[in-house]
Amino acid sequence: MPKLLKAGSFTIDAWRRLDADAARIADGDALLFPLPVWLARRDALLARDSSHTGIWLNGDEEPEQIAADIHRFGCIAVNFPTFMDGRGFSCGRLLRERYGFRGELRAVGDIFVDQLHFLRRCGFDAFELPDDTSLDTARNCLDAFSVHYQAACDPA
Questions:
Q1: What is the pLDDT of residue 133?
Q2: The CATH homologous superfamily of the domain defined by 3-142
Q3: HSE on the CB side for 74, CA within 13 Å?
């Protein structure tokens, strides 16, 4: 089971990914809806508490599809299907800078600790890491560089 790194420490993941064929959606559950589910059930899902409503985006899905509803999500998880697929970096930056998303932006999928610093520079603030990842290693990778030559959307 992956570990969730948030605010510099491992934490319990309150969010659960909803399967596309799930029939029951409880209002109190913190759920990550795959984009196709959100688009198909949008009108019904708008009534949910936004702090318990999140979206799961894959690298081939455009964040502009949720731009009008961006303020309705407590969490957006961006899936990196493979280590070599960097589209999620662009997606994170677009969500923060172009669409103004201020909730939890989570990197999930095939990510490694050596990417953490760059993911944070693109706006990600939570990371699902392999179970064998040590906290010290993750923290060191987050702060691997102290000087930056390019603008980014992180607070550094």
A1: 80
A2: Aldolase class I (3.20.20.70)
A3: 14
Please, which residues bridge with residue 127 across strands?
A: 5, 107
State both tokens at 49: 């508490």
Q: Which two three-digit tokens encode residue 156?
A: 């550094």
pLDDT at residue 83, as a whole number = 83
Residue spans of the chain under pLDDT 70: 1, 20-26, 141-142, 144-156
Beta-carbon contacts of 29 under 8 Å, excluding residues fewer than 6 positions away, are 16, 52
Q: Are 35 and 59 in contact (CB under 8 A)?
A: no
pTM: predicted TM-score of the whole model, two decimal places: 0.88
Alpha-carbon gap, residue 65 to 84, rounded angstroms: 24
Q: What is the DSSP string of the chain?
A: --EEEETTEEE----EEPPTT-----TTS-EEEEHHHHHHHHHHHTTS-GGGEEEEEETTS-GGGGGGGGGG-SEEEEEESSTT--HHHHHHHIIIIIS---SEEEEEES--GGGHHHHHHTT--EEEE-TT--HHHHHHHHTS-S--SS--SS--
Q: Give the count of alpha carbons within 13 A of 156, CB side only.
A: 21
